[in-house]
Amino acid sequence: MKKLTEKIPLFLCVIFAFALCIKGLREPDVWWQIRTGEWILENGRVPTHDVFSYTFNGTPWINVKWGSEVLFAITSKLLGAEFIFLIQATVIIILLLVLYKVCYLFVPEHSSNLSLLFAICAVPLLLISEYRFNGRPEMFSHLLSIVFLWLLLREQKKSSRQVWLLVPLQIVWANLHEAFGIGIVLTLVFAAGNLLEWFVAKRNKKLAEVTWFKKWFILLALQTICVTINPYGFALLTKPLNILGQVYENKFTTELFDFTNPEYWQWNVYALLVLIFVSTAVIVFYYRKSITSKNKVTFVSPFSAAYILVLLSFFYLASTAYRNVVFLALVSFPAMVYALKTLLSKHLTNEKIVWRFRITASTIIVLGYIMVVSGKYYNISQSRDSYGLRVLENFNPIETSEFIKANHVSGKCFSDYLTSSYLLWSLQPKFKTYIDLRDLDVFPPDFFNRFAEVVTFPQEFDRLDSIERFDYVVLYRPQFNNLHNHLYNNSRYRLAHIDAVAAVYLSDSFKAANIKMPPTPPNSLSYGISKFFNPFYQPQKKEDNTAIISSYYLTVGDYEKATEYALSALTDNATDLAYQLLGEVNYQKQQYLQADSFYRIALQLNSKNAAAWLGLGATYFQQQNYKQALQSFEQAMAYDKQSLNARLFAAECCKYYVNLNNSESISYLNKAIEHYLAANRLNPDNPSILMNTGLLYYKKNDCSKAIEYLNPIKGFEGLSTSERKTIADILLRCGAKF
């Protein structure tokens, strides 16, 4: 009975982890992955060339994730797409259990209290890593990284045949996810660590006589050879290098931002660094005398040279992309448990104190669980996730797909990468994409840049349309405003459907009737599971389409319809969104006092409404009250870090103070550049943003940076003649090579 009570914190921790994985499906990547798995099951082979787009059809495609995709496809077919999160939950639970075994290697003398120590450290680990619990194949790399670490640490402690399990596991990994190279790196790092310790100890034995060296060498060779056991053969050996290159080339995915980007520095990154710093400080403080002795370096067990090198390697990996932070959190976790054991070692012998710790830890986990299943955690952390197994209608173009199917719309479609993946799955097998979220695995960087031009500059879309002759266009509703406006007012296209996620524009050859879709009822099984963990759970309500339609008409400049739908939304429910939309309508009509009034009401109802702060700032800006405008834009950015317009407006406010040429001008010049750089990360390679950034760098007398930003857009026809001339003059003065 005593042993069972000791395990209570661990049991609660597992339940807490499971609850963190019960989410609504919003990731658009999942759909093309399910579709790929279905294609593999249908055709009995893995595709080696692109079969889903009409722009790069037949292009070589190395799809490492095919094994995960088949598993996703089977799960989706048997249970529903949202049940991919049950795979995620299962993987996380197995990962925790393996981590528990790793921690046992670090604190074997405190096995009776390991459950407590583990649970205390696991809660922050899970919260830090939760943003990547999103049902993607990456989950298998998280798990296998820790399995490899466990087997290698066991081998280091005591030689065992189990270490050879790394070989078949490497084969599995190379067919599940592209991060399979981590397995080889871990083995290499452990081999290097052992070699380092051998040299530090200054052993007399010749290296050729050291049996462990031969074993590590054979293990590495076998793992490398086993990577080639996949549908692509030897081509997979260079895949990790290609992926590393994509991190620096792909500017369209925030998860690939490295540590040099401000968007990388989210709260969980800071939290992890604090935990690592505190753990390191505790360990160094308590063992400082053991670490160095008479100028001779020693390693404090269990912190071998290999484990320290692993931490350093994963620290580098985490710095290269925001999505990789989880890997660092996982491998550093045993050190955190060890540091906590060291800190509490004097108290762990007192059963009464340990019992109090156990009750306190259990209470905290239960409270955290309640926060998660009630949805409050996601609200506080400003996450886009939500509790409950369900395919979210507010993130997936379900209604759009049903409209296309109901009206038998077919032919060549221009769609953006945010909507195309779902359509690829739901409109199979005839639907082909223009671009999709397979990113640089299929589509080269130049094509992404071309896509950015097409959705930003209407004349570029018309030029493309004259060649491709699209039959219809599906466009993500919250973005690409310029193209929405152009298509709405284009004589060749007409708006046929609008919903929370996308708008459909049909060419003049199509006739279609709009349909009103009822809310999709939740899967009874997924609803039951969500209810089991939270008896008070109710599915997330579908977004109010009336307000959404008003927002759309506002985007395309039809203020009469925008007002009509906004007032209708206000009649149904006096929400901050309805008042915000009325504010935007009045702003567009240049009725700034009325706009100001509506924005303020919206902010009274919801002080975190970023769009209302943005609108209020814009009204100040138009009235040349730049100080209050800048303050409002900063509030908008605080509540919506992805607000491109807030960044651009804030930069323009700063430019006003720059032109005053007073003592604060340099400070505002730097702020303006900072905002434009952030805008460029949100909307990469936009010529207008690049131009403004380059001009400001020139004003700062930084010609090298001015050339860097202006050179790519010299002669770009989307800019005015005077703008092109200004750019050419600056490049000439800076000595740019043409």
Describe the structure.
44% of the residues are buried. The chain is mainly alpha-helical and 738 residues long. The chain has 33 helices and eight strands. The chain has a four-stranded mixed β-sheet with strand order 5-6-8-7. It is globular and about 75 Å long.
Summary keywords:
single chain, 738 residues, mainly alpha, four-stranded mixed beta sheet, two-stranded parallel sheet, 33 helices, 8 strands, 4% strand
- Bin the helical content: 55-70%
Strand line-up of the largest beta sheet: 5-6-8-7
**Basic shape:** globular
- The number of strands is 8
* Content of β-strand: under 5%
The largest sheet, given as strand count, sense and whether it forms a barrel, is: 4 strands, mixed
Ends distance: 80 Å
Radius of gyration of CA atoms, rounded to a whole number: 28 Å
Q: How does the helix and strand content classify structurally?
A: mainly alpha
Residue-averaged pLDDT:
88
Low-pLDDT windows of residues? none
Work out the helix count.
Answer: 33
What's a quick, concise take on this entry?
This protein is mainly alpha-helical. Helix content is 62%, strand content 4%. The strands form 3 sheets. The protein has a 4-stranded mixed beta sheet with strand order 5-6-8-7.
